[in-house]
Amino acid sequence: MKLIYLLCFTLLAGCAGRATHTDTQASKPGLIYNGVPWYDDQGNIINAHGACIVQDNGRYYLFGEWKSDESNAFPGFSCYSSDDLVNWHFENVVLRVQPDGIMGPGRVGERVKVMKCPSTGEYVMYMHSDDLGYKDPYTAYATCSTIAGDYQLQGPLLYNGKPIKRWDMGTFQDTDGTGYLLIHHGPIYRLADDYKSVVAEAAHVKGMGESPALFKKNGTYYLLTSNLTSWEKNDNFYFTAPSISGPWTRQGTFCPEGTLTYNSQTTFVLPLRRGNDTIPMFMGDRWSYPHQASAATYVWMPMKVEGTSLSIPAYWPCWDIHTLKPVSPTEGWEALPDDSLHITADWVQRDSLWCSRTAGETWQATFHGTQALLTGESNPHGGYARVSLTNQQGDTLHSSLVDFYSKCPDRGVRFLSPRLPQGTYTLTIEVTGERPNWTDKTRTLYGSDDTFVCIESIRTL
User: Mean of the pLDDT values across residues 366-373?
Assistant: First the structure.
């Protein structure tokens, strides 16, 4: 992602903890909440970043980076399954850290993508491997006879007998079954019939960035990509072509300029079949370095296609997977009265927000219900908060970090708890005093300039 400073528009709307039980991810069936933790059917935060989705035997399989909070070193790739894209079941860590080699200890593993090879019936997984300094890149691959089984690393993917020494990558399977490997900054490689090597460069897209994702609709190919700004968000853009070989034309951004792709980065596009039509669903990551496992979240939304025009005209903090329409994220949620809130001294109220930057300060509420929702603002001065949920016996049912930093201010839902049995619970928001900060290869410093946590309300069901 290339660093660019853009006017930031305020967006309207918009490790891991474990709960004892959760019925559904959200309060109503079929709702996707963007930019908040998602939970599997055991109440654990879904940890699948840089992801892809494979549809197989009527079920969706989500593959992603099984991030940790301690290091950027590869801890494994995860797999979840779902029949509705909302309620997820954890299947397996499908590729684990290897004893040694390019996916061994102290290596990076990113951008996991899986395709089922039509000629062999095997599932083939692709990934970016690197050292922790991002100076030894490989595109590696692994195989498995079952979609959610234990994948066996096969080594580097070869082109003309040599490893592909590049970093960000994606994949695309055309309607005729041909597989393609997408590489940052231009190359689109055609895979062999068994998907285990590269046989040709099908195209070179001049001006492509990183995190490439490709889909096809009505005979036109659409290639999404991002600028280079390390873990920071930017205005992603896209190209179109009448065939995979081109000519490829740069079309511009697909989200309003200055929104930084609604504070996310492209990872994949999933075709949603609706009757006789196919709607492309954008899948993006909201990275949160250094606490990716606890605090990184996702942005998924349907995309609008008209000829060569591709867009996501507005940010939907919450939407219905069945109707593909936005839903108010707080509809039906009851705001807790002020006398039920316990706010420690260092919180200051401004513009309907309660803000604090003092480590250890808390904002707490006790409620009777099944679920809690926290609204607030992320902005360039935000830090991490620890959000925890306890029962009347004082047992901690959930605890995770919430990131209040974003380069573009965004006021909306910041946290949604797992759904629990009807009962009395206490929600505590604690300022950690830690800020999201990181550097790139050039040692350029990115991220927040402070540790503020800004809260608007706690709502419950």
Answer: 95
